[in-house]
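Hey, quick one: can you model this chain's 3D structure?
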Amino acid sequence: MPRRSILLFAAACIVIAASLAIVTVVVVTGRERASAEAEGVSTGAAKVGGPFQLVDQEGRSVDQTLLNGKWSLVFFGFTYCPDFCPTTLNGLAATKAQMGEAGKDLQIVFVSVDPARDTPQQMKDYLASDGFPEGVIGLTGTDAQIAAAAREYRAFYEKVGSGDTYTMNHSLTVYLMGPDGKYRSALSHDLGPEKSAQLIERVMKRG
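Sure thing. Here's the predicted structure for all 207 residues.
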């Protein structure tokens, strides 16, 4: 085969190999991202979390610094929630149990989206219910304070109905925040205690 033909053939092989490598990287990356999202892992940098001014179940004014120095799980809901909120709290209790010693220092923060009914005393009584994790921090505040906190966390909520029987639609994500108070990852509501514990432990190892 003439030298020119050999060189052209070799160049073509290199181009094909490079193209296949690029396709492989794209496919693998796509699969990893899809797998991570299916497990509730956040990929990329997300602007979640930030300053807030709220009141805890003891009536004390608090801000975002309550997240400092501890790993925290933050989620939004309300005490009159018939299903998802109690299920989430029970699930987080099971998640902490799965984590053993590592779960003892994991802080849970429950932010109400129903300040009209969720007074500090109502939050305190609710969080004392059997089956819920011990030491959960319940936060409430004015309509404006709750709206501001929800914006920082990209949390959705809306009032549905009127009168004493109204309910609240709200997002179900649990946000994992690092000891620096910054967002690390998200847990989907249906991930389950075992996978949630595994996810949290992986993220904790990364710091």
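One thing worth noting: Residues 1-45 have pLDDT under 50 and may be disordered.
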